[in-house]
């Protein structure tokens, strides 16, 4: 599943240059029985299966041992992707990007033995209020959002400054050539060459778009009294 999204574009480039490394493990490789069993029926009954603690603990311990062998001994966040987790946001991506290493565990919706949450995991993350069949796509979302914040990942650091969710506002609208497309003209101010007016317009548009589409963001956004 991971080969596709991480085998193209900026991530591929960053991986090739050694800026980011993805080290994917299959939980089944850490089982000890003939059938490589990773789940079992829930105690107390009920539908679905529960992921066993042993293969998950051993997979994480193996990763930590490999890092220790490379003299990497800092505390490494161990994150369980689960619909029960804290809702992922840009602020969390920024915080996670300050770690040199992260361990992500892809849970399954039916559940993971609670001892994983209690004794192995340092944080549980969900990517939104909807249900996926497993944590893999969520892990890819987290890896993508965090990786692009690694210095050098993006071509220009500028694209990080004005993008949506940085500063709590949505990004202002962008236009490119042609100046008139199907009779829809680019706003005059953007063609004026007046950078002060352009910046003022962009700021107003960012506030306006946020008000119209995501008023919830304005509560914590970086807006002054006049903009409020
Ligand atoms: Cl992290 N896992 C699953 N299975 N579903 C989700 C999710 C995670 N985040 C949102 N929905």
How is this structure best described in words?
By secondary structure, this protein is an alpha/beta fold. It has two domains: 3-147, 3-Layer(aba) Sandwich (Alpha/beta knot), CATH 3.40.1280.10; 162-219, Orthogonal Bundle (Trp Operon Repressor, Chain A), CATH 1.10.1270. The protein is built from ten helices and seven strands. The chain has helices spanning 3-6, 9-16, 53-69, 90-96, 114-119, 136-147, 158-161, 188-191, 195-213, 215-218; strands at residues 39-40, 50-51, 78-87, 103-106, 123-126, 180-181, 184-185. It has a three-stranded parallel sheet with strand order 4-3-5, with helices on both faces. The chain has a two-stranded antiparallel ribbon with strand order 1-2. The protein starts with a helix and ends in a 10-residue tail after the last helix. The mean pLDDT is 94. The structure holds 6-chloroguanine.
CATH superfamily (homologous) name of the largest domain: SPOUT methyltransferase, trefoil knot domain
Spatial strand arrangement across the major sheet: 4-3-5
Amount of beta strand: 5-15%
Q: What's the helix count?
A: 10
Low-confidence parts: none
| Order of SSEs | HHEEHEHEHEHHEEHHH
Reported for the largest beta sheet, the result is: 3 strands, parallel
Mean pLDDT: 94
CATH class of the largest domain: Alpha Beta
Assembly type of the chains comes to single chain
User: Termini separation (Å)?
Assistant: 44 Å
Residue share in helix = 25-40%
Number of domains: 2
CATH fold-level assignment of the largest domain: Alpha/beta knot
The number of strands is 7
